[in-house]
Aldehyde dehydrogenase (Pseudocohnilembus persalinus), 512 residues
Amino acid sequence: MINDDPNKIEPVLKELKKNFLDQQTKQIRFRKQQLQNLLRGLKELRPEIHQAQEKDLGIKNPNLGETFYLVPIEKALEHVISHFEVWTKPRFVKTPLLVGNGSSKIVPEPFGTVLVIGSWNYPFFTALAPAFEAIAAGNCVALKPSELAPNISKVLRKLFEKYLDTRYYQVIEGGVEVAKKISTYKWDLIIFTGSPEKGRLVAKAAADNLVPVILELGGKSPCIIDQDANIENAAIRICSGKYQNCGQTCIAPDFILVHESQKDKFIKSLQEKIELFYSQDPQNNQDYSRIISEFHAERQVKMIEEVKDKIVYGGNSDSKDRYVQPTIVLNPGKESQIMKEEIFGPILPVITYKDFVGEVLNPIMSDEKPLALYYFGGNKEHLRVLEQQTSSGAFVHNDVIMHSVVNDLPFGGVGKSGQSRLHGLYGFEACSHMKPILYKDTSNSFPNHIRFPPYTDSKMKFAKFVVPFGHLTNEDVKSGVLLAVFIVLFYFVVIPQIQNIFGNDSQQNADL
């Protein structure tokens, strides 16, 4: 049983804040060593991780747990280890001439002590990925794993205690009481992954202390299948993206918008892919996982009951086993629960349309901005308007969810689906204060004298004259001077020399 005492939060926060001041986490060599230790821990604790995944997530096939849950974490961590030293370097920027003689740069600076609150659907990735990006940025980290994945929570605690320096990096386990209380403290940054409803509570609590937050939330991600789409390709990729992790993926297609002409073909193909992947008995298939808890399984069952007359495939469940069959629902009512709430399970509504603009584009533009928007099809005009006129955390053409494994792409939502970005460089920068720095000399002559009283008429006339050139930088002036010198030399030295050479040649030809 996880200790649910919220009184343990404050001592951890105080210790981390105090230890941050010794500057150790800012040392590049120290950060790199800690990240490498974390990578080594992920490899050495493999058997315990697989056991925890089976108990919490129902992942019976270790190959599944390895390929889709652990390898992406390792690859993301290796990417950070390989690149973060470059990310820490100052970024030099140009200094306008009107500022005076000086230079400017931007330096990534750690916030201090970062709280990471992981989710239960991918409890390793949503906890560790933000944590190691915060570590790479030089922060101390407190990690709160999800209480709904208690076995994975224990492994995460062991990972931190055995492989990281606990003076700077700690795990705070706890249940509902700890989860409620932890975001009310004065952290320097909070990173939360979870539902929009819980994210709103975290943001409100953080606002009382003016603590910045990164919210990785969710929503109803639409998937459009146009009339010229490759149905076999769409079905196999949607089946994989939707039913992986039993539908508990924040970027999984939440509902399908399929052109009326492709409806029957798509549903038939999707049914075939479900049985190809998980057999006709998914409950006993080792590649099909489980809903996180009996409570969450019951929620899925209630959704199915409400639209049972619209089910064209599946619909079976066993709440005590946390099992819900892959289910397809055709044209459920707009007021049904599965069309009003994020499903977060293996139920897939399929909505038919005829009018792309009226039944697809306009509703997407007027609804809440989703975490992802997917489009299968080759209509270039439809592709263009979806990409340019809609807003979503990500837009993917002819695939689903795979943008999340591209380390050089940012990951995050917009509006109700989230705030800010994580992944690689974007996570590093989100966990850093990008501090502007300006160096100046001590001269108060031009152009500095313009900003000092008295503001005489002559000074103001001069200011009006030079302001239009304010966009020029010291570098531009230096380049301009060099160019002017080059032009003068070319005109007064090079050209006369050329004329002299050709003049001599002409004279010699004339003599001949």
In short: DSSP finds 17 helices and 18 strands in the chain.
